[in-house]
Amino acid sequence: MQLFYTSHIADNVAILSEEESRHLRVLRKTQDDVLQLTDGKGYLYEGRLQSALTKSSQPIVLDIISSRLQPKNRNYNLQLVIAPTKQNERIEWMLEKAVEVGIDSITFITTDHSEKSRINIGRLEKIVLSAMKQSGEYYLPQINDNQTFQSLLTSGFMQGAYLAHCNNTFEKSPLKTYLSVHKSNDPIKILIGPEGDFSTKEIESAYQSGALGLSLGNTRLRTETAGLLACMACSVLLK
Question: For residue 82, which of 42, 110, 52 has the smallest C-alpha distance?
């Protein structure tokens, strides 16, 4: 099934973005063809093309003929917090695969050992959208711009969060242990640090703010590998 996305649906009319309209023109759809759309909020729509497609840059308009709310493919809410990698393609790869596996939001953070603090939100949003459509999902994950580690501490986010790190002087447990007693209504909050790991000070502060130490195995993982492993573990353990 070819799935299109639009955030512009009102009064039973859907307007496609310039990029989605361009994609539709490549497929050479004709007037009155019926397409499947999603708003990224769980709804699957059927829309009928109002008119024949032209080479014009005008956005394409469809009449909505049906809509239904689709259930999520999983019964948990996963919020991933991760430090950007120095090479953009590594975090982009992870994000694409994480959406396919199942994730609700991703927040980027700057830590004491971060090598990079700036990210291209626009590009990442396109990757997330493409992965959502490709995997047949109807819920678009939220991407949050870079925040400081300190801002998460003061916001109360750390309470009940799982902080993945490699410092063996602090108590840690596998994700399986935590998920076995995790309350289904609470979001699963997992923090992944940069290649240099979270600093000792950050780990201490996180624990003091209610975070729990998370072990992702006995080997030292790259940031993007750790992020994807956490997503996959939730998918397998919470089926």
Answer: 110
Give the separation between CA 46 and CA 65, rounded to whole angstroms: 6
Q: What are phi and psi of 134, to 5 degrees?
A: -65, -35
CA dihedral 3, 9, 14, 16 (to 10 degrees): -60
d(CA 215, CA 162): 9
pTM, two decimals, is 0.91
Which among 134, 131, 71 has a CA at the least distance from the CA of 103?
A: 131
H-state helical runs in the chain: 18-26, 88-101, 121-134, 149-155, 175-179, 200-208, 223-237
Going by C-alpha positions, the residue among 174, 178, 186 that lies closest to residue 218 is 174
Three-class secondary structure of residue 208 per DSSP: helix
Each residue's pLDDT tens digit, 101-152: 999 999 999 999 998 878 899 999 999 999 999 998 999 999 998 999 999 9
Distance CA 188, CA 73 (A): 16
